[in-house]
Design goal:
alpha+beta; Cell Division Protein Zipa, Chain: A; 2 domains; six-stranded antiparallel sheet; five-stranded antiparallel sheet; 13 strands; 17% strand; disordered N terminus
Length: 361
C-alpha cells in the first residue's frame, strides 16, 4: 500500500470525527469486497451500468486551472541516499575490499529489527557504483558501504515527545550486539551527535504539528442522498472511482500526490461499493471532499476547484456545505487561512508537493 493510500485512510477516519453519521449498515449490507486492478474496476462498474453519467461537467476539473511546477528530467543513474535533514544516519564501516551480500543484510536486519528498530538500510553497490535501498526487491546483491537511517519523526513524534538520547542510543546498543552475534567486524560511526539529531527532531515535530493539515469540506443532508444519484453526480464531474473505493480527481502530472482531491462519506462503510449502490444499500447522508495540503501540487487552486465541485454537487443533490467542524462553510475565510498556511510553509522551506514535503508528510 503506498503512502497516499494510508493518507486517504487517515482522512476517512478524520471524516468520521467531523461529520455526523445518520443510520448504520448491517454487516450483511457490507459483504461485497473486491481487490482488483484499474481495468478490472472499469469493467466492474460497466457491467453494473454505472459507467455512464447523465451530463458532462468535467470542465470544472480542468487541470489547466492549476499551476503545477515542471519536473526536470531525472538522471538515469539516480541514487537513493539517506536525508540528513530528517534522518539520523549511522555508518557501518566495512573493512576495505570487503563485500557484503544482501542475504547477510537480511540476516542482520531481520524481522525483529524491522519491528522494533524502525529504520531504512541503504547500501553502496560496487556493481552499479551508486547508493540505493539495500533491502528491497530488484536491488543489487552486493554492497561495500552500509548506512542505517533513522527517521527522526518516527523516533520522537509521539503524543508526549520525550527528547533524550536514549531513544537513539538503543540503536547503537542493538547494532553492536547484532554485529557481535554475526561475527562481523564492522565499526559503528555516527554521522552527527545524538544531541544534534534531537534538535533536528524537535524542529521536524514542530513543522509536523504546524503543517500536516488537510482541507475537509462536507456536503451534509438532513436525510439520505440517493446512492445512484450521488454516483451519477460524481461521475458527471469527471471524478474517477477507484483507489480505496473512493472518487478521485487524479493528478496527470508526475509532481506531488497522485490525486488532487478525493471524495468519501462518513456514512458507513465510508467508501463507495458499486454493488451496494446498485442494490440501493448505499445511500450516504453526506459527501466529504478533501486533500492533504503539504502533498498537493497546487493547494490554492485545487481548493478553488474543490469548492466549485462541491457547489455543483449541491445544485444537483441539495444539502448544506459545512466545514470540518460541522459549521456553515465560509469560503473566503478558509481561503485566507489556507494562503497563510502555505506562506508559513514556504517561509520555512517546505514547498507543497515537493519531494521534501512528500517525504515529511
Amino acid at each position: 500500500m503506498n503512502k497516499m493510500t494510508y493518507i486517504i485512510i487517515g482522512i476517512i477516519i478524520i471524516g468520521f470525527l467531523f461529520f455526523f453519521v445518520k443510520g448504520k449498515k448491517s454487516k450483511s449490507d457490507q459483504d461485497d469486497f473486491f481487490i482488483s486492478t484499474a481495468s478490472q474496476s472499469s469493467d466492474r462498474i460497466e457491467q453494473l451500468g454505472l459507467n455512464e453519467s447523465s451530463e458532462d461537467v468535467s470542465h470544472i476539473l480542468d487541470e489547466s486551472q492549476l499551476q503545477i511546477p515542471e519536473i526536470k528530467a531525472k538522471e538515469e543513474n539516480v541514487e537513493y541516499k539517506p536525508d540528513s535533514n530528517r534522518e539520523w544516519i549511522i555508518d557501518l564501516v566495512i573493512p576495505n575490499g570487503t563485500i557484503v551480500k544482501q542475504e547477510k543484510l537480511y540476516e542482520l536486519f531481520d524481522l525483529e529489527w524491522r519491528t522494533n528498530f524502525s529504520s531504512t538500510i541503504f547500501g553502496h553497490s560496487p556493481e552499479d557504483n551508486k547508493w540505493t535501498y539495500a533491502l528491497a526487491g530488484g536491488t543489487p546483491e552486493t554492497y561495500d558501504q552500509i548506512q542505517v537511517a533513522i527517521n527522526l519523526l518516527d523516533v520522537f513524534n509521539e503524543e508526549i515527545p520525550n527528547y533524550n538520547t536514549k531513544k537513539l542510543e538503543r540503536y547503537i546498543i542493538e547494532l553492536e550486539k547484532r554485529l557481535k552475534n554475526h561475527s562481523l567486524e564492522y565499526e559503528i560511526e555516527e554521522t552527527e551527535t545524538k544531541e544534534s539529531a534531537i534538535e533536528k527532531s524537535k524542529q521536524l515535530v514542530k513543522f509536523n504539528e504546524l503543517f500536516d493539515k488537510d482541507i475537509l469540506i462536507g456536503l451534509q443532508s438532513d436525510n439520505q442522498y440517493n446512492g445512484k444519484e450521488v454516483w451519477d453526480v460524481l461521475q458527471s464531474l469527471g471524478l474517477k472511482w477507484g483507489d480505496g473505493d473512493l472518487f478521485h480527481w487524479n493528478n496527470s502530472s508526475d509532481y506531488a500526490s497522485d490525486q488532487h482531491f478525493s471524495v468519501w462519506t462518513s456514512t458507513e462503510p465510508g467508501y463507495f461499493l458499486p454493488e451496494q449502490v446498485t442494490k440501493g444499500k448505499m445511500n450516504p447522508t453526506n459527501l466529504v471532499f478533501g486533500f492533504s495540503i503539504p502533498r498537493s501540487a497546487d493547494p490554492m487552486n485545487v481548493y478553488r476547484v474543490l469548492v466549485n465541485s462541491i457547489k455543483y454537487c449541491q445544485t444537483r443533490l441539495g444539502g448544506q456545505i459545512i466545514n470540518r467542524n460541522g459549521e456553515p462553510f465560509n469560503e473566503q475565510l478558509e481561503l485566507i487561512q489556507l494562503s497563510e498556511l502555505i506562506k508559513n510553509m514556504t517561509d520555512n522551506g517546505i514547498i507543497p508537493g515537493s519531494d521534501n514535503s512528500l517525504m515529511l508528510y
